[in-house]
Amino acid sequence: MIELFDEDFDAIELVEGALILNKAVDPDTQQNWAEAELARLAKEAEQSLFHERDDKQRLDSLLRLFYTEWQFCGDHDAYFSSENAFIDKVLERRKGIPVSLGAILLYLGRKLGMPLEAVTFPTQFLVKVNWPGEAPVYINPYDGEYVSKKRLHAWLIGNDGPLVKLEAKHLATSDNPTVIGRWLALLKSALLREEKYTLALRCTDLALTFVPDDPYEIRDRGYIYQQLDCHQIAATDFQYFIEQCPDDPAIELLKTQVSAINRSPVTLH
User: Fold this and answer.
1) Which among 171, 204, 235 is the end of a domain?
2) Does pLDDT of 157 surpass 80?
3) Mean pLDDT in the chain?
4) Which of 121, 149, 171 is the endpoint of a domain?
5) 128 vs 173: CA distance, rounded Å
6) pTM of the full predicted structure?
7) Given this model, what pLDDT does residue 265 score?
8) Is the dihedral of CA 81, 99, 170, 76 positive or negative?
């Protein structure tokens, strides 16, 4: 398996790091095709915007190209589908979620010399635009619309309650390793919902190369092993979680499962 976190993700574009992640989870990922398609789109964008001289107008033209002509859009019908976290699938379907669409938009914008950055806002991924000498503005990559701070505060209230305040930390630029780590968690959750346990197990194994003793990741791995009928391995992972997090609300249920596994006869395959 690819050692995902051996990669220097800050030395490459976010979308390129996402493709490395995708390939590590699913070897069938069309990484070479996706890289070629990204390069093709970048070239097409450069040719389309060649005569634009105003930087802000160039960005607005890129957004029109991306969302109107190329018809990239948020996946309203199957938001939580794992396909929305695989860059090759997003490029094929022209549908995605904020982080996958945002990663592609960042790639294209930077290729055109635009001052775009990634923001992992608490409710979703954003693209920050840092025009020289001006306050940053923010784009919702789900639909390509600019988002005001008033609207961002409303999103935050909906997520954290009426007393929360919009702070600078919420809009800080995120480095690629941070985004990739969250992308991995998102992908694992989607694969678990779809009962694609072998792929979900790869997500957990990758996460544990980064934080080897994370009890919650080990608990999730135990659940996956249980679904794959590897009950003794599951029990070992559950027992580790029980010992490390004795006050967790799920402890009693896990103790019951471990006890049931230990009482069951071991099947040799």
Assistant:
1) 171
2) yes
3) 93
4) 171
5) 8
6) 0.92
7) 66
8) negative
